[in-house]
Design a protein that fits this description.
The longest helix is centred in the N-terminal third of the chain and has 19 residues. This protein has 1 helix and 11 strands, in the order H-E-E-E-E-E-E-E-E-E-E-E. It is mainly beta. It has one domain. The protein is globular, with a radius of gyration of 23 Å.
Length: 152
Amino acid sequence: MKTTLKFFLFFLFIINYGCNNDEGILCFTEPAPYSFELVDKTTGKNLLTNGTFKSTDIVVKDLDDSSKNVKFDIISENNLNVIRFGYIGWETENINYSVSIHGKNIYDFHVKATRVNNKCSYTEYKDFKIGNAAYEFDKTNGVYKIFVDPKI
């Protein structure tokens, strides 16, 4: 019994020492992407999936530099097509974008991303706003649904 108790205490000491000694261990959390689904405000159908709009119809402008078109991706997964901005938050920045289709503003969004670099690097997001559109956030997939009149 004494041998078992000694072994158990020794084992507990080793585990505890390993858990507390984090010197030199770095951790990293990459920024979360922002995803937007354009849906028919009446039917709720995805307007990219059903062919109402094509990815080439979409233009994203930086409101702080209107001469600059902004890069975005169209992600197609599980019969869901979304506009994704996967690079926001890799550095400290203020994002002010306008999303248009056929020259008509669909929505604007703003977010302040602050990259925190210390032992565990991560991004803090503040002041997130969507303007000029009705929307809802789907907690199950992390996508913002933007309600659009398809008759642009």
